[in-house]
């Protein structure tokens, strides 16, 4: 999130992938990163982040980069854990 309070999914994705290069190993996340300059849908990003969220080395940077939408990511992860 910028100092003025604005939030850009594209910028957050770039920052997160730089902080956690291991996310490239997750297929769904990698497909979103490979879209390049295309418009990124927030639901696609939330689905990709839910796969990465429980990885021990990625959780804290993920929360930092995606703080404005982290509630939706956590809700998605909890929903997936209920299925298991």
Helix and strand string, N-terminal first?
A: HHHHH
Q: What characteristic shape results from the CA principal axes? A: globular
Task: Calculate the terminal CA-CA distance, rounded to whole Å.
Answer: 33 Å
What structural category do the secondary elements indicate?
mainly alpha
Query: Roughly how much helix do the residues carry, as a percent range?
Result: 55-70%
Tally of DSSP helical segments: 5
Regions with pLDDT < 50 over 5+ consecutive residues?
A: none
Biggest pleated sheet = none
Structural domains: how many? 1
Average pLDDT: 85
Rg, Å, rounded:
12 Å
- This entry's quaternary arrangement is single chain
Strand content: under 5%
**Number of E-type strands:** 0
Blueprint of the fold:
Layout lengths: L8 H11 L7 H7 L8 H11 L6 H7 L4 H14 L1
Helix pairs in contact: 3-5
Overview of the structural elements:
The chain has 84 residues and is mainly alpha-helical. It has one domain (9-83). The protein has helices at 9-19, 27-33, 42-52, 59-65, 70-83. The termini are far apart.
Structure characteristics:
mainly alpha, 5 helices
Summarize the structure.
This protein has 84 residues and is mostly helical. The chain contains five helices and no strands. Helix 3 crosses helix 5 (70-83).
């Amino acid at each position: 999130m910028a100092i003025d309070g604005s939030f850009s999914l594209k910028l957050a994705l770039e920052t997160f992938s730089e902080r956690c290069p291991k996310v490239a190993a997750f297929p769904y996340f990698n497909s979103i990163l490979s879209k390049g300059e295309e418009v990124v849908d927030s639901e696609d990003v939330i689905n990709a982040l839910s796969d990465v969220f429980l990885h021990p080395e990625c959780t804290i940077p993920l929360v930092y980069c995606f703080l404005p939408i982290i509630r939706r990511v956590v809700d998605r992860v909890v929903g997936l854990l209920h299925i298991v």
